[in-house]
Write a structure and sequence with these properties.
The complex is a heterodimer. Chain A is α+β, with helices and mostly antiparallel strands. Chain A has 15 helices and 10 strands. In chain A, a hairpin with a 5-residue loop joins β1 and β2. The longest helix of chain A has 30 residues. Chain A starts with 18 loop residues before the first strand and ends with a helix. Chain B has a single domain, classed as 2-Layer Sandwich (Beta Polymerase, domain 2). Classes of the chains: A alpha+beta, B alpha/beta.
Chain lengths: 395, 161
């Protein structure tokens, strides 16, 4: 074992020299910690802020408070299928999408084809999950800014989706539903009617949400022109998902690097247009999520129409998972962006290496670049608009 | 859009044959081995050369090949304009694992390199903020190495697995 003990100090923070304020008092820059127990950091994130009065001159995120090292656990699992409950717990508000990414990566590595019924159920589930996740994101974003009511409206709708999931998988948050080569079990008989009823009832609610929050004067004042993320910066930092599309980049892996059966559906890629301020500001990132829910509804409707009624959902589930020696990097679009799995197999039943390229981890790394010059209160808006899940940042 | 074989040809023409090795018998996609000291120039070339334009680093991962006593870094590159992908690998001896950073080329590498250092103890020369990222700064050892033994106590607290 390598045992390196070294005392590396943190990044050096140099403060400007004290300045005479003119009344016999002196002013100087100040360092404060925002978090890890701050209500608007969406979990346990600590921001080390250097402030000049109210203005942020430097922001350093400190992460790792939720680090469980699921990658190490995976290597001790002795079964590729047992990793799925761990990937559930990365992005715990979008567990279906995490499972889907892992299942697709493994199926590509082992060259497994699943039947159409499985594919359609997976797509419907992950799009429902996308809506649920975006509802949580926009609801808590409003909550951060000070709008309490929309959060409750969002949660009413989210509960309906969780009910559908509960009927199918028995769980409301962490499902272990999408397996390598299939699904845990078939959906209940009334799945189609339930989902169709939800789609019908949810569509008018998007307008309601827009009336309540999106076009609220106070909300726009707090988010427009705040935390502007230019297109070039976003690509260079590897930002993905709604945060990237908010900067006006038309980039969606469902269209640009298609997986599963997404090439069978008609939907639009929503991009930010700077309607209320600059392209790439907090409001743009927010509104992309709102309209993406509408696009997800479109996909679900088409999938419900096309979904075959016959098919064994466990047809292709392998008894013992033993992939060929080799490696794969496979990425899918989760509600937060590009989730990539890098899996190395050494032809045994134990994963040699599983690495997740978590979208929240990468999206959060852009925060120091876009928060310079912002007010302290705007930091809350910027963090909320990136929509991080700390379980995924720290893994 | 170029295949990994074509990209390997271009790299070999530019930097000389002996520095690259193409691994073709892979189940999914071939990858190219790059020498540690050259990774920076190769990355810069791949990003800026017209027709290649690898403007996005999708993922950077450390790997511990314990049987060969080696540590590796894998780079998954992608071009948003040309739509091609490429996998590069650097493999280094375990006792002297260091290579130049690519943080100045793709900012994505900033946190990913810190993670690889944190988990595998791979050093990235020239990284501006070379600290641990997920574990505490005074943590002992590198958790994702295959021979990692967790420390018994951390600041007087019992560490349970």
């Amino acid at each position: 074992m390598t045992n390196v003990k070294e005392n590396r100090p943190g990044p050096e923070v140099t403060l400007s020299p004290p300045v005479d304020a003119g009344n016999g008092l002196k002013t100087q820059e100040m360092v404060i910690s925002m978090g890890p127990q701050h209500p608007s950091t969406h979990g346990v994130l600590r921001m080390e802020l250097t402030l000049n009065g109210e203005i942020v001159t430097r922001a350093i995120p400190h992460i790792g408070y939720l680090h469980r090292c699921f990658e190490k656990h995976s290597e001790a699992m002795n079964d590729y299928a047992k990793v799925i409950p761990y990937v559930d717990r990365m992005d715990y508000v979008a567990a279906m999408n995490n499972e889907l990414g892992y299942a697709i990566a493994m199926e590509r590595l082992m060259d497994i084809r699943v039947n159409d019924r499985v594919e359609y159920i997976r797509v419907i589930m992950s799009e429902l999950q996308r809506i649920a996740s975006h509802l949580l994101a926009v609801g808590t974003f409003g909550l951060d800014i000070g709008a309490f009511t929309p959060f409750l409206y969002c949660f009413i709708e989210r509960e309906k989706i969780l009910d559908i999931f509960e009927k199918a998988s028995g769980a409301r948050l962490l499902y272990n539903y999408i397996w390598i080569g299939g699904l845990m079990n078939d959906v209940p008989a009334d799945f189609k009617t339930d989902t169709a009823a939800f789609v019908k009832s949810f569509r008018p609610k998007i307008k309601e949400l827009n009336d309540l929050l999106s076009h609220n004067k106070i909300f726009i004042d707090r988010t427009a022109n705040v935390g502007v993320l230019p297109e070039k910066v976003a690509i260079n930092y590897g930002v993905s998902g709604p945060s990237l599309r908010g900067s006006g980049v038309e980039w969606d892996l469902r269209k640009d690097d298609p997986y599963s059966i997404y090439d069978r559906f008609e939907f639009d890629v929503i991009v930010g247009q700077g309607e209320m301020g600059t392209v790439g500001d907090c409001w743009d990132r927010y509104i992309v999520r709102v309209w993406e829910m509408e696009e997800s509804l479109k996909i679900i409707e088409q999938a419900l129409d096309q979904m075959p009624d016959e098919g064994d959902v466990q047809e292709a589930v392998p008894k013992k998972i033993r992939p060929p020696a080799g490696e794969i990097y496979c990425r899918t679009e989760t509600p937060r962006g590009e989730l990539g799995y890098y899996i190395i197999s050494d032809k045994s039943t134990t994963p040699f290496r599983v690495k997740a390229r978590a979208p929240s981890f990468v999206n959060l790394s852009v925060l120091p670049a876009i928060s310079i010059g912002a007010m302290v209160a705007d930091m809350v808006a910027i963090i909320g608009s990136i929509d991080i899940v700390l379980g995924e940042v720290d893994r | 859009m170029k295949t990994p074989e074509e990209l390997h040809r271009i790299l070999a023409d530019k930097f000389g044959d002996e520095v690259f090795e193409l691994k073709q018998d892979e189940p999914v996609a071939p990858w190219i081995i790059v020498k540690a000291e050259q990774i920076r120039e190769v990355s810069k070339f791949l990003r800026d050369e017209p027709g290649l334009r690898f403007d996005a680093l999708m993922c950077l991962s450390g790997v511990h090949y314990h049987k060969e006593n080696a540590l590796g870094v894998t780079y998954h590159l992608f071009s948003t304009s040309e739509k091609h992908k490429l996998t590069l690998k650097v493999i280094m001896p375990e006792e002297d694992a260091h290579l130049p950073t690519v943080e100045q080329i793709w900012k994505t590498a900033d946190w990913h390199e810190r993670e690889a250092y944190d988990m595998f103890g791979i050093r990235f020369d020239g990284h501006p903020d070379h600290r641990r990222i997920l574990c505490p700064d005074d943590w002992e050892g590198y958790p994702l190495r295959k021979d990692y033994q967790v420390q018994e106590f951390y600041r007087g607290m019992k560490v349970e697995y």
